[in-house]
Amino acid sequence: MAKKSSIEKNKHREALVKLYAPKRKALLATANDQSLEMEERFEARLKLAELPRNSSPTRIRNRCGMTGRPRAFYRKMGISRIALRELGNQGLIPGLVKSSW
């Protein structure tokens, strides 16, 4: 199980990303628009830099929905490999069969 603080920190980041998404999108569109003057684009970059760092979507870490484990995360199911194996062994994931030889 991951530390509670790490899980909560990630939840806080997700909330900030959701909050600042429209503003960030507008500033990025302005900053990347080649038809605008260089000064306007530069001002947009400066305003973008003033936003909180944790409002950037790249700072969100994929974590297991059950345990909070940050590594070996399966996006399709939203859980880690360990949780996937446990649920598979219990027969709770349809179509998943543990191989044995």
From TrEMBL:
Reported function: Binds 16S rRNA, required for the assembly of 30S particles and may also be responsible for determining the conformation of the 16S rRNA at the A site.
Protein name from the UniProt record: Small ribosomal subunit protein uS14
Cross-referenced PROSITE patterns: RIBOSOMAL_S14
NCBIfam families in the cross-refs: PRK08881.1
Domain of life: Bacteria
Encoding gene per record: rpsN
Gene3D superfamilies named among the record's database cross-references: 1.10.287.1480
GO terms under cellular component: cytoplasm; small ribosomal subunit
Molecular function (Gene Ontology), one example: rRNA binding
Biological processes, Gene Ontology terms: translation
Keywords on record: Ribonucleoprotein, Ribosomal protein, RNA-binding, rRNA-binding
